[in-house]
Design a protein that fits this description.
By secondary structure, the chain is of the alpha/beta class. It has a single domain, classed as Rossmann fold (3-Layer(aba) Sandwich), CATH 3.40.50. It is built from 2 helices and 3 strands, in the order E-H-E-H-E. The longest helix is centred in the middle third of the chain and has 14 residues.
Length: about 90
């Protein structure tokens, strides 16, 4: 990562595939200022396979594993995007 790139984290409140899909799409579409990260997703293999298929059909690659992390002390991001289905918000 170069010093002028901003770190961005995609997080899904329900650990669905949304965060990884969004992060993968941004990573594939931008060559700009973003160092893209995502939180891990629940291990629903059918969801993962379908998401990989969609990205592959679009010609995009899956976000690499080193860019997937749990938020914790000592890590920081310039931007954070929380993806939610609306069920968590009341």
């Amino acid at each position: 990562m170069s010093d002028n790139r901003k770190r961005i984290l995609f997080l899904c409140a329900h650990r669905s595939i949304r965060s990884l899909m969004a992060a993968s799409l941004l990573e594939a579409r931008t060559r700009g200022p973003w160092d893209v990260w995502s939180t891990p997703v629940s291990p629903d293999q059918q969801e993962v396979d379908l998401a990989r298929q969609v990205l592959d059909e679009m010609g995009f690659r899956w976000l690499p594993s080193p860019q997937i992390t749990e938020p914790s002390f000592g890590l920081s991001w310039d931007e954070g995007i929380i993806l939610c289905s609306g069920l968590a918000a009341t």
